[in-house]
Amino acid sequence: MTNLKQAILQGIPSEIPAKRDINASVSHAPNRKNILNKEEKQLAIRNALRYFPEHMHTVLAPEFAEELKTYGRIYMYRFIPEYEIKARHLEDFPHKSKQAAALQMMLSNNLDEAIAQHPEELITYGGNGSVFQNWAQYLLCMQYLAEMNNEQTLVLYSGHPMGLFPSHKDAPRVVVTNGMMIPNYSKPDDWEKFNALGVTQYGQMTAGSFMYIGPQGIVHGTNITLLNAARKIDARAADLSGKIFITAGLGGMSGAQPKAGVIAKGICIVAEINPQATYKRHEQGWVDEVYKDLDELLDRAVTARTNKEAVSIAYDGNIVDLWERVVERNIYIEIGSDQTSLHNPWAGGYYPVGMSYDAANEMMANNPEKFKKEVQKTLIRHTNAINTLTERGMYFFDYGNAFLLEASRANADILKPNGDFKYPSYVQDIMGPMCFDYGFGPFRWVCASNDAKDLAITDRIACEVLEKLMHDSPDEIKLQMSDNINWIKAAGENKMVVGSQARILYADSEGRMKIAEAFNNAIADGTLSAPVVLGRDHHDVSGTDSPYRETSNIYDGSQFTADMAIQNVIGDSFRGATWVSIHNGGGVGWGEVINGGFGMLIDGSADSDRKLKSMLFWDVNNGISRRSWARNKEANFAIKRAMKMNPDLKVTMPNSADDSLINSLDL
Ligand SMILES: NC(=O)c1ccc[n+]([C@@H]2O[C@H](COP(=O)([O-])OP(=O)(O)OC[C@H]3O[C@@H](n4cnc5c(N)ncnc54)[C@H](O)[C@@H]3O)[C@@H](O)[C@H]2O)c1
């Protein structure tokens, strides 16, 4: 047995490992605020010690107390394994169940140093998107996955492995819940408190569900958004060429923006306050050029526009300084947005202007009230600059990071007289009507061989399937099909793989089912060397209820309900998912969204064929039916088409009421 297998099977070591310093060469989460009182701190330490035998407690208790004092959380750094955590071939992980091995592969990818934003704090992206709360949970979970069989289900409560429970072979191998709170305890400070106590975590969307595949996952969605934003402001535009797009953030997801902008053939300027994030993206080739001098940067962008050059440019500094300089120099910008982590404004998601990254982090930990005020002042300046530029013709949209929400809470000038936001969210204007309502969403897969050759084969197969489907597809979805065919054709040469051999494309339910079926056949006949994991981002048609993002183009009042996401995850779980997950928070913030997803290992078997057809059909059409019931006409079209394809689907259709009748009522 390899050392890796032995180490995983050992779980929590029986002897206390040597103390280790934190790794200075990786990015670390900001220190969290000191929110617990003395009794609560004692409880947090008692909670942490539950994972360890009593003979370790005298060493660990003071160490955990120190971690809590210094970092605001107990990460248990001492227990970080010696081996490198990364995606590997399925067979490299110890297992009795291939499905459980697939889960080890996927969660290891989420903690890979090349992928994770703060790997030693087990945070994959979004500043607080955790895979686990601490290293004991990681060690236990890997051990359970290594030991379990196909008649057991591992239950994860916000990263905590509650244990293996007997189930059956068609049941999910893992059920994940993250951050599920009693609704009255779901405010941002509740996350701080209960996360510090070690009883809940913020799983973001794909971090705590092991489905994050690096920035590639978002490159494609961003690419589609930018292509369509360019077409929206310029009916003759095929893409973003000759247009400048300004935004912020080079983090986990936001780091995809420069690459997506270049693939859309535009000029993409991104401000990033954390130099470590900026230079990491530069080294990885995700951003072409970095500037500290704003005038040099803007001159470069204007020249690129004249030459219709596709280029990505990072500003090593605060986004507000960049916007204000654009205003001063009166440079016309076609499109603007923002992807700072405003879902998490007080704990490192958004940095105030006029101070360095380090100074801001220091203030955040030691003077959180002042930090909050500085963030609010910055949001007001941020909004003022954007308002000036939109008056000069720029198209601005909210990129699902709660920018509009937090700017309004900071009393920035972001509301129309009727109380609506001045700007649309990208889902209201672009993604909702053009993609989600038709069922197009971020389908993805990962080759369990971890072999680039397999990925290239899956790219070819997916492209062939889409080309065939496009031939017969209705006019309403031909543009979506062709954007995705172009994407998959160029995917290999765009070199987007960081970590596991993964690919994403936007497909509707028919596309997802047909691609998955073709993969399953290719595994069965040996064209692919190993099984494939299917999944998706939670940011999709059916998985997420989020009134300011995924469901912001629902206008019947139900955007504030979460039935769709809950129905979705329950429905996926009994239709064949290998794992399912449901999260509070993710994207726009704790308490603001419920989102869920699945993973499914297909292995070329008849069982896989049955499961993929049953589950993928439900996984997309659940959301379309809800969107159709909300009277969204594109969804109405799509659900009628789905009912024709499968006569067992019978969906309640809405009747429309006459406007003049409604308006004539005495209310
Ligand atoms: N719309 C979408 O499709 C979509 C997708 C993914 C993420 N998001 C949202 O976008 C946000 C960013 O996600 P992420 O995973 O990249 O988070 P992240 O925390 O990894 O990255 C955000 C980056 O913004 C930087 N930043 C913060 N304040 C800044 C400032 N004032 N000036 C310049 N840079 C600043 C941070 O240093 C950080 O690197 C999140 O709120 C997320 O939910 C939206």
Summarize the structure.
The chain is α/β, with parallel strands linked by helices and 667 residues long. The chain has 22 helices and 17 strands.
% residues in beta strands: 5-15%
Distance between the termini: 75 Å
Mean residue pLDDT: 96
Shape designation:
globular
Instruction: Count every helix, treating DSSP H or I runs of 4 or more residues as helices.
Output: 22
Which molecules are bound besides the chains? nicotinamide-adenine-dinucleotide
- Name the poorly predicted regions: none
* Relative helix content: 40-55%
Largest sheet: 9 strands, mixed
Explain what you see.
This protein has 667 residues and is α/β, with parallel strands linked by helices. Helix content is 42%, strand content 12%. It contains 22 helices and 17 strands. Strands 3, 4, 5, 12, 13, 14, 15, 16 and 17 form a nine-stranded mixed sheet that branches. A six-stranded parallel sheet has the order 8-9-7-6-10-11, sandwiched between helices. A two-stranded antiparallel sheet has the order 1-2. Helix 12 packs across helix 13, helix 16 packs across helix 18 and helix 20 (606-629) runs antiparallel to helix 21. Bound molecules: nicotinamide-adenine-dinucleotide. Nicotinamide-adenine-dinucleotide binds at residues 117, 125-127, 218, 221, 248-254, 271-274, 277, 318-319, 339-343, 349-351, 399-401, 539, 587. Nicotinamide-adenine-dinucleotide (NAD) binds at residues 117, 125-127, 218, 221, 248-254, 271-274, 277, 318-319, 339-343, 349-351, 399-401, 539, 587.
